Amino acid sequence: MAHQKPLLPVQTPVPEDIDIAQAIAPVHISSIAEKLGLTPSEYDLYGAHKAKVKLSVRDRLKDAAPGKYVVVAGITPTPLGEGKSTTTIGLCQALGAYLGKK
Q1: Could you tell me whether strands 51-53 and 43-45 are parallel, antiparallel, or unpaired per DSSP bridges?
Q2: Number of domains into which the chain is organized
Q3: Which UniProt keywords apply (predicted)?
Q4: Domain span holding position 92
């Protein structure tokens, strides 16, 4: 498979996490849930930008094609608290924006 051009420009040097985080306005979580096909009864809001998805979604999607799962484990957090969650989000962004993978 030929390497394709990244969907997002690669910056050198890589910007600091805080610069990346402040470069975009947060999207309301209900907009993201809607794009994912979740109904409002399938998640609980925790403010405007966080939610927990209810396990009942698994039952509704039991016949759907299986997705992909990446495990990030055994990471010692940095002094700023960057650990598994930050690494997982970074991997997802790299796979989606740079490699065009879901």
Answers
A1: antiparallel
A2: 2
A3: ATP-binding, Ligase, Nucleotide-binding, One-carbon metabolism
A4: 65-76+83-101
Residue 51 sits at φ, ψ, to 5 deg, of: -155, 160
Is residue 72 domain-shared with residue 57, that is, in the same domain? Answer: no
| Residue found under tokens 């799962």 | 69
Using alpha carbons only, give the angle 33, 36, 39 rounded to the nearest 5 degrees. Answer: 55
Q: Are the C-beta atoms of 85 and 75 separated by less than 8 Å?
A: no
- Residue 97 pLDDT grade (very low, low, confident, very high; cuts 50, 70, 90): confident
Both 43 and 71 in one domain: the answer is no
- Is the overall model pTM greater than 0.85, yes or no? no
Within 13 Å of residue 3, how many CA atoms lie on the same side as its CB? 2
Residue pair 47/30 in contact by the 8 Å Cβ criterion? no
